[in-house]
């Protein structure tokens, strides 16, 4: 393998190993990875050569540790750096030894490509006494010995590696930099000609290393600014060196004329500056001061306030800011709360639907408008771009982007893609930090703002200044559409994303505007500044802000806000969700406080150094939506205190448990959005008061010792009766122990004047509480057909499942009998039919003894268990009892009128309902069954038809009904043939 290829192999392998280390690979694995990369790269780059990293003459190149030692020794020899200088530079803590940590830093600062494992191996080799630190003698001996013992091949290799390396010896840095740069430039063309591919790889590795060093330098600057690193420049600044120079220039004393010193300095000539500085022994600063004075020549004034006054003659408008009272009021005091909307095409009310309405169906939705950035569009178009873009559609774009900056054009992206980016770029980080996640409405709002819709949103907000011109402009632009919910969503987006923004300085450029007096005259609290009504777009790039602020003419009004973000007060980086990500926008929310700290003049530009304060009174969407729910919870805390006085210590804890469990089951199980419906909120507040009254007045009846709770004839009024029952059920389940954990319980609510809504709530309670196996709601005709149907469906839902039997007619483990009256209310009829067709029943004692039923006496049935196919047929029972009301309802519910007893049973006669009715002589039942299609030709186990059974019993009227032509009837009741 040639030396050029070997050179590239090691550079590429080292870059790969460094990356692996950054990604978390252990040191020993990095070494193995490095060696494997060397071997793999040699095979790819030099397939015709040997399969090892050999030099020009086939001799093996050095191992990693030896390679580092050779490069370092060769660099010392070439640069003539003294070992003592190198030792002192690496001994950072000046303790006379070099620790392993200092050794690593020292080697890394020389830009030698080496893994931590290589460095540690070399350190162990040089640490001859095993003390864990290198003294000067050990370092000197190791380097001298290492250089003298190098082979020719290794020495040549080390010389090539050391060619671009810097050792920062005392007084030799500049010379070394220059020498290295000249050597690299001179050799570059030759290297490329010899091995273009290998040099390309090496250059990439060197570029990566250069970036690493640049990042390190940037970190050092940050450390200096934060006070974590001492530097001479910062120390000198703290010693007021500028005052020394100012004294040397013999400035005039400050007077009423604030510009006297500015005019004096601006008129200084080079000769005057040289003379003044020489007198103060500061001649070395002459060129610097002369250049600084020259930069003042295009500046018209040194006073920011004076410049702002001059802007008043050319500015197109004056910026308007609010007072502290506006700041403390928050966004809701400005616009009102966000609202939910259902609309004709949606099943539920939501904030998203309201945002959609604001853009697609409000008065200005189809009106064209032109934003200051040159885009002419409509609100409905922008909603489509963000939420449902059409593939291939041509949407409005900023002026000049198509022709001059095609890569800057916005790319419509489906909402699914942006939602995925939200999870990856945002919500994972928010979750990890324990913050609330971004939701869909906030995502859509933030993305809409980065397009031309920002113009409408900010116009709405700034019209709240009550400035007549701005109010009229907003009315013309939006036709009264305040975009309230959308602006709340954007604000919430900014609040959440600000938690992910790194603190630092941001800039905002504004042109054609003049600052109001509040930024120049302190208020009663000694503060200058104001409250920005709208959103504020800023950038972390000062040059970009200067571009935004730049005017066409020298006298044009140009202002730069320089703002320091802090631990709490930070804007939101919208880059990942922006329609124009190249802008790297950092957005501040509405009602941000901007406090003026100092003002400078740069040429014809006003630079305002300020501190920002985010509006903590403005809430996220969840906080706004949860406000009413929180009001309820605060109210409950007060009720608990009242219960202690009303119930006394003995019953208080039981009553509080019922209250808390009832609320957890009912109101507090609702989503926060539910409370923002005025009807819902009004209802639940009243319901909670009724719940308090119910617990206080009924607590002595709500015993939990027995599984049956008797509330027959319950007279408690109000809307919280089912909540009381829910609290009792959940308390009983939670407090049960031992065998009682699995115990079923029942509630007797006969004649309790239940309503339809309460019946629906009871059905839901039975669904959520499987151990509530029995209710008795008979005598509550007020539940109506709808309420009866809901309860009946609860019973019928268990049909054929074999689960625990349930009842709404009072059948429980302790009372398995069911009474079926002869005349039933339609509500009770429906409930009874649900139980008759769901479970297996047997006749009561009287019927089993052969006693004939009386028309004025209810029939009694005993439940035998869950449903079993064909063992029990309720229509046959109704035919036998001649219970026309039950039979008719069963047929309405879909029971087969021709169903027969199964032929498999020993006691089964394979009878149908018509057989039974004909045999019993129940004329009305026969008429009912025939009217609904009963088959008269069906035969029982003994081959009898219904007619034959009637003839045996001599029921003449039934016989006549069962005969038609020639004695057989057509099938309609009372229709006899000749």
From TrEMBL:
<dbReference type="InterPro" id="IPR002048">
    <property type="entry name" value="EF_hand_dom"/>
</dbReference>
<feature type="domain" description="EF-hand">
    <location>
        <begin position="114"/>
        <end position="149"/>
    </location>
</feature>
<dbReference type="InterPro" id="IPR002110">
    <property type="entry name" value="Ankyrin_rpt"/>
</dbReference>
<dbReference type="Pfam" id="PF12796">
    <property type="entry name" value="Ank_2"/>
</dbReference>
<feature type="repeat" description="ANK">
    <location>
        <begin position="909"/>
        <end position="941"/>
    </location>
</feature>
<keyword id="KW-0040">ANK repeat</keyword>
<dbReference type="Pfam" id="PF13499">
    <property type="entry name" value="EF-hand_7"/>
</dbReference>
<dbReference type="GO" id="GO:0005509">
    <property type="term" value="F:calcium ion binding"/>
</dbReference>
<dbReference type="InterPro" id="IPR011992">
    <property type="entry name" value="EF-hand-dom_pair"/>
</dbReference>
<feature type="domain" description="EF-hand">
    <location>
        <begin position="78"/>
        <end position="113"/>
    </location>
</feature>
<feature type="repeat" description="ANK">
    <location>
        <begin position="870"/>
        <end position="902"/>
    </location>
</feature>
<dbReference type="InterPro" id="IPR036770">
    <property type="entry name" value="Ankyrin_rpt-contain_sf"/>
</dbReference>
<dbReference type="InterPro" id="IPR018247">
    <property type="entry name" value="EF_Hand_1_Ca_BS"/>
</dbReference>
<keyword id="KW-0677">Repeat</keyword>
<keyword id="KW-0106">Calcium</keyword>
<protein>
    <submittedName>
        <fullName>Ankyrin repeat-containing protein</fullName>
    </submittedName>
</protein>
């Amino acid at each position: 393998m040639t030396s050029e290829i070997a050179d590239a192999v090691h550079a590429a392998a080292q870059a790969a190993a460094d990356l692996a280390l950054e990604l978390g690979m252990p040191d020993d694995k990095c070494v193995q990875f490095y060696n494997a990369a060397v071997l793999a790269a040699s095979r790819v780059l030099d397939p015709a050569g040997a399969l090892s990293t050999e030099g020009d003459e086939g001799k093996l190149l050095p191992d990693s540790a030896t390679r580092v030692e050779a490069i370092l020794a060769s660099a010392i020899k070439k640069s003539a750096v003294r070992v003592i200088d190198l030792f002192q530079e690496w001994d950072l803590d000046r303790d006379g030894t070099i620790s392993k940590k200092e050794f690593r830093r020292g080697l890394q600062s020389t830009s030698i490509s080496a893994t931590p494992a290589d460095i540690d191996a070399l350190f162990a080799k040089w640490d001859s006494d095993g003390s864990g630190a290198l003294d000067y003698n050990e370092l000197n001996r190791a380097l001298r010995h290492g250089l003298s013992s190098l082979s020719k091949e290794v020495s040549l290799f080390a010389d090539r590696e050391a060619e671009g390396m810097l050792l920062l010896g005392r007084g030799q840095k500049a010379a070394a930099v220059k020498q290295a740069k000249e050597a690299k430039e001179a050799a570059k063309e030759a290297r490329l000609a010899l091995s273009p591919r290998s040099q390309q790889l090496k250059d990439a590795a060197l570029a990566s290393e250069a970036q690493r060093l640049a990042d390190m330098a940037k970190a050092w600057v940050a450390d200096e600014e934060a006070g974590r690193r001492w530097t001479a420049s910062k120390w000198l600044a703290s010693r007021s060196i500028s005052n020394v120079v100012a004294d040397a220039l013999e400035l005039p004393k400050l007077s009423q004329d604030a510009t006297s010193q500015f005019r004096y300095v601006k008129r200084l000539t080079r000769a005057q500056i040289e003379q003044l500085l020489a007198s103060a022994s500061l001649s070395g600063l002459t060129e610097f001061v002369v250049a600084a004075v020259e930069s003042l020549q295009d500046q018209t004034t040194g006073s920011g306030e004076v410049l702002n006054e001059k802007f008043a003659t050319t500015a197109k408008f004056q910026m308007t800011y609010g007072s502290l009272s506006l700041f403390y009021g928050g966004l809701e005091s400005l616009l009102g709360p966000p609202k939910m909307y259902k609309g004709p095409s949606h099943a539920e009310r939501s904030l998203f639907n309201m945002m959609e309405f604001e853009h697609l169906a409000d008065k200005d939705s189809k009106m064209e408008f032109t934003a200051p950035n040159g885009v002419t569009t409509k609100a409905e178009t922008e909603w489509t771009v963000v939420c449902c873009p059409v593939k291939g559609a041509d949407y409005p774009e900023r002026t000049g982007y198509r022709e001059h900056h095609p890569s800057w054009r916005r790319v419509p992206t489906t909402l699914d893609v942006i939602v995925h980016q939200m999870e990856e770029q945002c919500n994972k980080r928010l979750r990890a930090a324990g913050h609330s996640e971004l939701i869909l409405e906030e995502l859509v709002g933030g993305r809409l703002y980065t397009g031309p819709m920002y113009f409408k949103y900010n116009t709405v907000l700034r019209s709240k200044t009550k400035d007549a011109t701005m109010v009229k402009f907003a009315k013309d632009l939006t036709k009264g559409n305040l975009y309230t919910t959308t602006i709340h969503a954007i604000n919430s987006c900014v609040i959440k994303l600000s938690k992910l923004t790194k603190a630092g300085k941001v800039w905002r450029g504004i042109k054609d505007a003049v600052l109001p007096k509040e930024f120049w005259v302190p208020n009663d609290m000694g503060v200058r500044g104001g409250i920005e009504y709208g959103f504020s777009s800023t950038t972390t790039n000062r040059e970009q802000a200067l571009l935004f602020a730049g005017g066409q003419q020298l006298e044009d009004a140009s202002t730069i806000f320089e703002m320091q973000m802090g631990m709490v007060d930070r804007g939101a980086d919208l880059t990942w969700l922006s329609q124009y990500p190249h802008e790297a926008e950092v957005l501040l929310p509405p009602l941000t406080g901007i406090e003026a700290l100092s003002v400078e003049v740069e040429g014809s530009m006003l630079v305002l150094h300020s501190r920002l304060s985010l509006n903590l009174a403005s809430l996220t969407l969840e906080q706004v939506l949860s406000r009413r729910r929180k009001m309820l919870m605060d109210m409950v805390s007060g009720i608990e205190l009242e219960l202690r006085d009303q119930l006394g210590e003995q019953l208080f804890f039981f009553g509080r448990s019922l209250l808390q469990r009832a609320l957890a089951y009912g109101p507090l199980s609702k989503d926060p959005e539910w409370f923002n419906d005025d009807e819902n909120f009004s209802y639940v507040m009243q319901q909670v008061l009724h719940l308090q009254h119910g617990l206080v007045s009924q607590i002595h009846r709500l015993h939990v010792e027995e599984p049956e709770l008797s509330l027959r004839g319950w007279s408690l009024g109000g809307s919280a009766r089912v909540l009381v029952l829910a609290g009792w059920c959940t308390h009983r389940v939670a407090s049960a122990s031992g065998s009682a954990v699995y115990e079923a319980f029942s509630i007797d609510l006969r004649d309790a004047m239940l309503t339809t809504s309460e019946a629906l709530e009871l059905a839901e309670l039975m669904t959520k509480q499987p151990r509530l196996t029995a209710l008795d709601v008979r005598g509550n005709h007020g539940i109506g057909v709808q309420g009866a149907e809901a309860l009946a469906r609860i019973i019928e839902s268990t049909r054929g499942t074999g689960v625990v039997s349930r009842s709404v007619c009072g059948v429980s483990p302790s009372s398995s009998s069911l009474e079926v009256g002869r005349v039933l209310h339609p509500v009770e009829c429906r409930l009874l039919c649900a139980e008759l067709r769901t479970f297996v029943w047997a006749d009561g004692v009287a019927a089993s003894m052969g006693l004939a039923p009386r028309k004025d006496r209810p029939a009694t049935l005993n439940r035998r268990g869950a449903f079993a196919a064909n063992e029990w047929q309720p229509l046959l029972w109704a035919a036998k009892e001649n219970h026309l009301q039950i039979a008719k309802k069963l047929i309405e519910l879909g029971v087969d009128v021709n169903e027969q007893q199964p032929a498999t049973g020993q006691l089964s006669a394979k009878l149908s309902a018509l057989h039974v009715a004909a045999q019993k002589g129940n004329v009305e039942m026969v008429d009912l069954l025939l009217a609904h299609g009963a088959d008269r030709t069906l035969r029982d186990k003994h081959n009898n038809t219904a007619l034959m059974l009637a003839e045996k019993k001599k029921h003449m009227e039934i016989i006549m009904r069962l005969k038609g032509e020639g004695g057989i009837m057509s099938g309609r009741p009372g229709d006899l043939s000749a």
